[in-house]
Amino acid sequence: MITKEFDTIAAIATPLGEGAIGIVRLSGTDAIAIANQIFKGKNLENVASHTINYGHIIENDQVIDEVMLSVMRSPKTFTREDVVEINTHGGLAVTNEILQLALRSGARMAEPGEFTKRAFLNGRVDLTQAEAVMDLIRAKTDKAMAVAVSQLDGSLKHLIDNTRQEILNTLAQVEVNIDYPEYDDVEEMTTALMAEKTSEFKDLLEGLLRTAKRGKILREGLATAIIGRPNVGKSSLLNNLLREEKAIVTDIEGTTRDIIEEYVNIKGVPLKLVDTAGIRETDDVVEKIGVERSKKALEEADLVLLVFNASEKLTEQDKQLLAISQESNRIILLNKTDLEQQIERDLLPDDLIPISVLENQNIDQIEDRINQLFFDNAAAVEKDATYLSNARHISLIEQAVQSLSAVTDGLELGMPVDLLQVDMTRTWEILGEITGDAAPDELITQLFSQFCLGK
């Protein structure tokens, strides 16, 4: 793809605030010339590409900051344009002042995600790789990061591109058979070819869809509700999993009045932990609101950690919680096993996990059970595996499978092959939307608008 002509954009590429460095990034035809106007040091027009240069940012002979400035010439850059990155001292005022100076010198403020959008439009990355950039930024665990890196390296792109090419080859072969019927059995040969290839493509895409559950969990995390009646140790469990004191822990019932949300890394799987108010009947108006929110969290949770107090007998509230969580992906935890046990074990399911949050006993078994529930005891990420984790990709693959199913149904009904080509061609087009080869402009604009400034 030939690099397109764009104006020069600029943005701060590091989080705003105090830090060791802040980076102001410029990209475009005039990036080096604009930087040269505000940089005192070497003449940037003459320096070699991919070098870092010491100097000062100045305005009207006044030094704004001492910087290291990187010059990267097209096409060997992320955007395939000339790129300049000004490494300044990390501070809100100085970084913003350098950005404003670049804008006054001829650059335009970048839109959210515009650097990555230019990389896409200039053929540096496809849509799956562009989306992987944001997934990598947002990754909360090492395994989520591994999935994003694999997609950034082009694993999904290559699979989709190869499949689309195979579909084209099949369509071309069918077309040849139709246009040049040299044999009496040409119709039978063409139908057999279409059936064989349709089955292959469908098996491949359905196999990819089977990775979607794992991939989406690794990308977005499991919404996990910790539920139980008041004072069974929900907040203590949250703090134990987080390894820090996030929730208030007291012996007073109803201390947790609202929902507390935190992310925790469980063997590479991000859990969005929700510590809910104890579910019970109450006349306290504020607590009653917390209880209602807890019930809503239970309905929306991917995983429920149902906590009971082993040192007390089951109450009616406990039995109600058992009933309303029965259809959920739940793990039943019997807490306070370090105390004398009073709970009726025979009234509880056999697969419960006895724990003591106070003495940190059997907490690791919770992690093992999560692996059983959601990953079938397999490693969360197999080496070199291609995972679907993006909701847009999953939806398009499902549509492609439906198109292939239409081809299969048509073959069984004896429909003419040239009519079946319409659904096969539609499959090719749908897969092209994943990589961006056949994506509408509105979709591309909407996708990149979700990126942060400077990316």
Automatic annotation (TrEMBL):
K(+) binds at residues 231, 250, 252, 255. It is an enzyme of class 3 (hydrolase). Belongs to the TRAFAC class TrmE-Era-EngA-EngB-Septin-like GTPase superfamily. TrmE GTPase family. Its main location: cytoplasm. Gene3D superfamilies: P-loop containing nucleotide triphosphate hydrolases, Probable tRNA modification gtpase trme, domain 1, tRNA modification GTPase MnmE domain 2. Mg(2+) binds at residues 235, 256. It is found in: Cytoplasm. This is tRNA modification GTPase MnmE. (6S)-5-formyl-5,6,7,8-tetrahydrofolate binds at residues 25, 85, 124, 455. One of its GO terms (molecular function) is hydrolase activity. Keywords: Cytoplasm, GTP-binding, Hydrolase, Magnesium, Metal-binding, Nucleotide-binding, Potassium, tRNA processing. Its cofactor is K(+). Pfam families: MMR_HSR1, MnmE_helical, TrmE_N. Homodimer. Heterotetramer of two MnmE and two MnmG subunits. Residues 221-375 form the TrmE-type G domain. Its EC number is 3.6.-.-. Binds 1 potassium ion per subunit. GTP binds at residues 231-236, 250-256, 275-278. The lineage of its organism: Bacteria, Bacillati, Bacillota, Bacilli, Lactobacillales.
